[in-house]
Amino acid sequence: MPILNKLEEIFCSKFSKNLTTLSQHGSVETYHQGVNPLAVVYPTTVEDVENTCKLCSKENIPIVGFGAGSSLEGQLVYYQDPGICMNFSKMNKIIEVSIIRYKYL
Q1: Which of 53, 103, 44, 104 is nearest to 83 (CA)?
Q2: Residue 46 φ/ψ, nearest 5 degrees
Q3: How many CB atoms lie within 10 A of CB 31?
Q4: How many domains are there within the chain?
């Protein structure tokens, strides 16, 4: 998939298609069964998040945010088409909350 190549180019070491990593991000502590994501990205800046969202939006690829992976209700599980998992573990500060910016991304 071209989007995976582009994300890998942008994120380099902050990008993974490793099967173990995909499996860790494709399952949760619940009975819900899903499929693994296509890849995992580890953004460290707002720009990383914006770039990922823009690329995935153009290709109609779903994104699931991942924090600690402790979901008990299946929020992190891809049920149909797999997408990109955005692991936010490397981002630990809230810079700004802006509804206006959210609406126009």
Answers
A1: 53
A2: -60, -40
A3: 7
A4: 1
65: domain CATH number is 3.30.43.10
Residue 54 above 90 pLDDT?
yes
> To which residue do tokens 């991000």 refer?
25
d(CA 62, CA 53): 9
Any idea what the Cα angle at residue 71 is, between residues 35 and 64, rounded to 5°?
50
- Taking CB atoms within 8 Å and a gap of at least 24, the contacts of 55-63 are 55/3, 55/6, 55/7, 56/3, 56/83, 56/84, 59/3, 61/3
DSSP conformation class of 13: G
pLDDT of residue 30: 64
Tens of pLDDT, residue by residue over 13-39, are 899 998 888 888 776 666 666 678 899
DSSP bridge pairs for 87: 66
Residues spanned by the domain of 88: 2-103
